[in-house]
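Table S5 (text form). Sequence records supplied for joint modeling of the two-component complex.
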Amino acid sequence: AQTVTQSQPEMSVQEAETVTLSCTYDTSENNYYLFWYKQPPSRQMILVIRQEAYKQQNATENRFSVNFQKAAKSFSLKISDSQLGDTAMYFCARNNFNKFYFGSGTKLNVKP
Amino acid sequence: GAVVSQHPSRVICKSGTSVKIECRSLDFQATTMFWYRQFPKQSLMLMATSNEGSKATYEQGVEKDKFLINHASLTLSTLTVTSAHPEDSSFYICSASPPTWQETQYFGPGTRLLVL
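The corresponding C-alpha coordinate record, covering 228 residues in total, follows.
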Protein backbone atom coordinates (compact mmCIF):
# COMPACT_ATOMS: atom_id res chain seq x y z
CA ALA A 1 0.00 0.00 0.00
CA GLN A 2 1.17 3.48 -0.86
CA THR A 3 0.26 5.21 2.38
CA VAL A 4 1.55 8.24 4.21
CA THR A 5 0.67 8.59 7.88
CA GLN A 6 0.72 11.68 10.03
CA SER A 7 -0.26 10.69 13.55
CA GLN A 8 -0.52 14.20 15.02
CA PRO A 9 -3.75 15.92 13.92
CA GLU A 10 -2.88 19.11 15.77
CA MET A 11 0.10 20.58 17.59
CA SER A 12 0.93 23.82 19.35
CA VAL A 13 4.24 25.52 19.94
CA GLN A 14 5.31 28.72 21.56
CA GLU A 15 6.86 31.35 19.35
CA ALA A 16 10.67 30.99 19.07
CA GLU A 17 10.58 27.37 20.22
CA THR A 18 11.22 24.20 18.24
CA VAL A 19 8.60 21.69 17.13
CA THR A 20 8.79 18.37 15.32
CA LEU A 21 6.06 16.97 13.09
CA SER A 22 6.02 13.23 12.45
CA CYS A 23 5.42 11.31 9.26
CA THR A 24 5.76 7.66 8.31
CA TYR A 25 5.19 6.10 4.93
CA ASP A 26 5.02 2.82 3.16
CA THR A 27 6.79 1.93 -0.05
CA SER A 28 8.39 -0.96 -1.85
CA GLU A 29 10.59 1.27 -3.97
CA ASN A 30 14.22 2.00 -3.30
CA ASN A 31 14.39 5.44 -4.84
CA TYR A 32 11.73 8.03 -4.24
CA TYR A 33 11.18 11.56 -2.98
CA LEU A 34 9.58 12.86 0.18
CA PHE A 35 8.12 16.30 0.74
CA TRP A 36 6.67 18.58 3.33
CA TYR A 37 4.13 21.12 2.15
CA LYS A 38 2.62 23.95 4.13
CA GLN A 39 -0.97 25.10 3.62
CA PRO A 40 -1.71 28.38 5.41
CA PRO A 41 -5.26 29.74 5.79
CA SER A 42 -5.05 31.06 2.22
CA ARG A 43 -4.97 27.35 1.21
CA GLN A 44 -2.06 27.86 -1.17
CA MET A 45 0.15 24.76 -0.99
CA ILE A 46 3.75 25.81 -0.45
CA LEU A 47 6.74 23.50 -0.76
CA VAL A 48 8.71 23.58 2.47
CA ILE A 49 11.38 20.96 1.92
CA ARG A 50 12.12 17.86 -0.09
CA GLN A 51 14.30 14.81 0.45
CA GLU A 52 15.67 12.36 -2.07
CA ALA A 53 15.62 8.87 -0.62
CA TYR A 54 19.00 7.88 -2.00
CA LYS A 55 20.66 10.78 -0.18
CA GLN A 56 21.52 9.94 3.40
CA GLN A 57 22.09 13.54 4.37
CA ASN A 58 19.04 15.19 5.87
CA ALA A 59 17.68 18.12 3.91
CA THR A 60 17.73 21.59 5.44
CA GLU A 61 16.07 24.84 4.37
CA ASN A 62 16.78 27.69 6.78
CA ARG A 63 14.71 27.00 9.92
CA PHE A 64 13.28 23.79 8.48
CA SER A 65 15.06 20.46 8.59
CA VAL A 66 14.11 16.83 8.31
CA ASN A 67 15.08 13.66 10.10
CA PHE A 68 14.96 11.00 7.41
CA GLN A 69 15.18 7.42 8.63
CA LYS A 70 14.95 5.28 5.52
CA ALA A 71 14.95 1.90 7.21
CA ALA A 72 12.20 2.98 9.57
CA LYS A 73 10.35 4.78 6.74
CA SER A 74 10.15 7.87 8.87
CA PHE A 75 10.35 11.48 7.70
CA SER A 76 9.86 14.09 10.42
CA LEU A 77 9.98 17.86 10.02
CA LYS A 78 11.69 20.07 12.57
CA ILE A 79 10.85 23.75 12.69
CA SER A 80 13.29 25.83 14.69
CA ASP A 81 12.66 29.29 16.07
CA SER A 82 8.94 28.99 15.29
CA GLN A 83 7.28 32.11 13.96
CA LEU A 84 3.65 33.17 13.93
CA GLY A 85 3.69 32.86 10.15
CA ASP A 86 4.41 29.15 10.50
CA THR A 87 0.83 28.61 11.65
CA ALA A 88 -0.65 26.33 8.98
CA MET A 89 -1.55 22.80 8.00
CA TYR A 90 1.49 20.73 7.18
CA PHE A 91 1.24 17.81 4.79
CA CYS A 92 3.82 15.09 4.34
CA ALA A 93 3.88 13.58 0.86
CA ARG A 94 5.65 10.91 -1.13
CA ASN A 95 5.79 10.62 -4.87
CA ASN A 96 5.36 7.46 -6.88
CA PHE A 97 5.86 7.80 -10.62
CA ASN A 98 4.96 11.47 -10.31
CA LYS A 99 1.76 10.73 -8.38
CA PHE A 100 1.70 12.24 -4.95
CA TYR A 101 0.37 10.52 -1.87
CA PHE A 102 -0.42 12.88 0.97
CA GLY A 103 -0.77 12.33 4.68
CA SER A 104 -3.84 13.56 6.51
CA GLY A 105 -2.05 16.67 7.72
CA THR A 106 -0.98 18.23 11.01
CA LYS A 107 -2.40 21.55 12.06
CA LEU A 108 0.32 23.62 13.68
CA ASN A 109 -0.54 26.58 15.89
CA VAL A 110 2.26 28.93 16.83
CA LYS A 111 1.34 30.88 19.93
CA PRO A 112 2.72 34.34 20.75
CA GLY B 1 10.21 30.18 -10.79
CA ALA B 2 7.72 27.28 -10.96
CA VAL B 3 4.60 29.38 -10.61
CA VAL B 4 1.20 27.85 -11.22
CA SER B 5 -1.95 29.94 -11.47
CA GLN B 6 -5.62 29.04 -11.37
CA HIS B 7 -8.69 30.88 -12.51
CA PRO B 8 -11.18 31.62 -11.12
CA SER B 9 -10.26 31.68 -7.46
CA ARG B 10 -13.88 31.37 -6.46
CA VAL B 11 -17.04 30.51 -8.35
CA ILE B 12 -20.67 30.15 -7.39
CA CYS B 13 -23.04 28.45 -9.79
CA LYS B 14 -26.51 27.02 -9.94
CA SER B 15 -27.16 23.31 -9.82
CA GLY B 16 -27.15 21.78 -13.30
CA THR B 17 -24.73 24.22 -14.87
CA SER B 18 -21.14 23.53 -15.94
CA VAL B 19 -18.09 25.26 -14.56
CA LYS B 20 -14.64 25.50 -16.12
CA ILE B 21 -11.48 25.95 -14.06
CA GLU B 22 -8.17 26.86 -15.70
CA CYS B 23 -4.71 25.88 -14.54
CA ARG B 24 -1.66 27.53 -16.06
CA SER B 25 2.05 27.04 -15.60
CA LEU B 26 3.40 30.57 -15.91
CA ASP B 27 7.14 30.14 -16.29
CA PHE B 28 7.60 26.58 -17.48
CA GLN B 29 6.08 24.01 -19.77
CA ALA B 30 4.30 21.08 -18.21
CA THR B 31 3.47 17.93 -20.14
CA THR B 32 1.65 16.67 -17.07
CA MET B 33 -0.61 18.48 -14.66
CA PHE B 34 -2.62 17.12 -11.77
CA TRP B 35 -6.04 17.92 -10.39
CA TYR B 36 -6.90 17.50 -6.74
CA ARG B 37 -9.97 17.95 -4.63
CA GLN B 38 -9.87 18.99 -1.00
CA PHE B 39 -12.77 18.92 1.43
CA PRO B 40 -12.67 21.11 4.56
CA LYS B 41 -10.11 19.97 7.11
CA GLN B 42 -9.08 17.05 4.93
CA SER B 43 -6.10 16.16 2.81
CA LEU B 44 -5.76 16.49 -0.93
CA MET B 45 -7.29 13.76 -3.03
CA LEU B 46 -5.88 13.18 -6.49
CA MET B 47 -8.66 13.20 -9.06
CA ALA B 48 -6.82 12.86 -12.34
CA THR B 49 -3.60 13.30 -14.23
CA SER B 50 -3.81 15.64 -17.19
CA ASN B 51 -1.56 14.74 -20.11
CA GLU B 52 -0.78 17.22 -22.87
CA GLY B 53 -2.09 15.98 -26.20
CA SER B 54 -3.72 12.85 -24.84
CA LYS B 55 -6.53 11.69 -22.62
CA ALA B 56 -6.45 12.32 -18.90
CA THR B 57 -5.97 9.46 -16.48
CA TYR B 58 -8.61 9.35 -13.77
CA GLU B 59 -8.28 7.90 -10.31
CA GLN B 60 -10.60 5.16 -9.22
CA GLY B 61 -14.01 6.46 -8.27
CA VAL B 62 -13.72 9.72 -10.20
CA GLU B 63 -16.30 10.08 -12.97
CA LYS B 64 -14.54 11.09 -16.16
CA ASP B 65 -17.80 12.28 -17.75
CA LYS B 66 -18.45 14.45 -14.73
CA PHE B 67 -15.02 15.99 -14.53
CA LEU B 68 -13.79 16.73 -18.04
CA ILE B 69 -10.12 17.50 -18.39
CA ASN B 70 -8.46 19.08 -21.38
CA HIS B 71 -4.72 19.70 -21.67
CA ALA B 72 -4.54 21.52 -24.98
CA SER B 73 -1.15 23.15 -24.56
CA LEU B 74 2.02 22.78 -22.54
CA THR B 75 0.95 25.56 -20.19
CA LEU B 76 -2.78 25.09 -19.82
CA SER B 77 -5.05 22.42 -18.41
CA THR B 78 -8.76 22.89 -17.81
CA LEU B 79 -11.16 21.05 -15.53
CA THR B 80 -14.84 21.29 -16.37
CA VAL B 81 -17.35 20.19 -13.78
CA THR B 82 -20.38 19.23 -15.83
CA SER B 83 -23.96 19.41 -14.55
CA ALA B 84 -22.72 20.51 -11.17
CA HIS B 85 -24.58 19.53 -8.02
CA PRO B 86 -24.22 20.75 -4.43
CA GLU B 87 -22.11 17.70 -3.56
CA ASP B 88 -19.53 18.91 -6.09
CA SER B 89 -18.91 21.95 -3.91
CA SER B 90 -15.29 21.75 -2.85
CA PHE B 91 -11.83 23.24 -3.18
CA TYR B 92 -10.10 22.21 -6.41
CA ILE B 93 -6.33 22.50 -6.73
CA CYS B 94 -4.08 21.87 -9.69
CA SER B 95 -0.36 21.20 -9.75
CA ALA B 96 2.43 20.84 -12.26
CA SER B 97 6.08 19.85 -12.34
CA PRO B 98 8.77 21.84 -14.15
CA PRO B 99 11.08 19.84 -16.43
CA THR B 100 14.09 20.33 -14.17
CA TRP B 101 12.22 19.20 -11.04
CA GLN B 102 9.90 16.53 -12.35
CA GLU B 103 9.66 14.82 -8.99
CA THR B 104 8.33 17.96 -7.34
CA GLN B 105 4.87 19.39 -7.78
CA TYR B 106 4.06 23.08 -7.54
CA PHE B 107 0.51 23.97 -6.74
CA GLY B 108 -1.92 26.57 -7.94
CA PRO B 109 -3.77 28.72 -5.39
CA GLY B 110 -6.94 26.66 -5.72
CA THR B 111 -10.52 27.31 -6.79
CA ARG B 112 -13.38 27.31 -4.35
CA LEU B 113 -16.55 25.99 -6.02
CA LEU B 114 -19.95 26.46 -4.45
CA VAL B 115 -22.93 24.90 -6.18
CA LEU B 116 -26.31 26.19 -5.04
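Note: The interface with chain B takes residues 33, 35, 37, 42-47, 50, 52, 91, 95, 98-100, 102-105 of chain A (CB under 8 Å).
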